[in-house]
Amino acid sequence: MRWTNIFRGFAMGITELIPGVSSGTIALLIGIYEQLLSSIKGILGKSFRESLRFLFPLVIGMGIAILTLSSVMTYLLETHPIPTQMAFVGLVIGVLPMLWRLSRVRETFKAPQIIMFIIGLGLLIGMSFITPEEVAHSPEITTMLLVKLFFAGMLAAMTLLLPGISGSLVLLILGYYYLIVSSISELTSLNFAVLPILIAVGLGILVGLYVGSVIISFLFTHFKYVTYAGVMGLVLGSVLSIYPGLPTSPTMWVVTIITFIIGFSVSFLLGLVGEKEATSE
What residue ranges are annotated as transmembrane (predicted)? Predict the structure, then answer.
């Protein structure tokens, strides 16, 4: 087992608690994105054991982050929304220099790449203007609700593999984000009545991860730089999804600038390290 992946999974799990921030972006940032895709795709093939050794610690880390930090992130977003979200804005913007280098923009950006960049950018900008119709936190659990949650989890999982699109943002747009987050909190309080909800979402996520990994791997294999152009558009567009607005006091301005710089610096430096790891594999 690659137990160091627990820490990588922990970082990815934190981002899935924030609507608009993608764990795919973090995977790209820390240099494991392509290996993540191939491991998920290989879990049902001959490379099952190798894929399991890579993925199992990653999943543990993500689970630990989601279970232990969901309450913390909820508190920060409710009490200090602007500094908290600006830290993630900095984190996302700090990824762009690495994407610029990986995309080889000066050599490869022609009409197809420009079109894909605009599509990716437009998709995220459009998503940011969608007003979700939120499902009640404690709905009646019906077969139809569980089917909808399965497909919501499947779609969220497919999108979370794409850098720039957050699975939690998709759930927010579909109206199931707060239901799922509150169900996780209820489970940590040993309320097992929410298990059907979480099982339905979990099964959808498993199916979505596999299907998404196959599709995205195909795109990177056969249309590498066009796909990277689309990813750049998605990442840039995701900034609008998480942009919280401007601070209203001098003190808050200082705190917000500091959190933005910290977020940007972390992702920029990790991008340099992650890019070296990715190109050395």
Answer: 6-33, 54-76, 82-102, 114-130, 150-180, 192-219, 225-246, 253-273
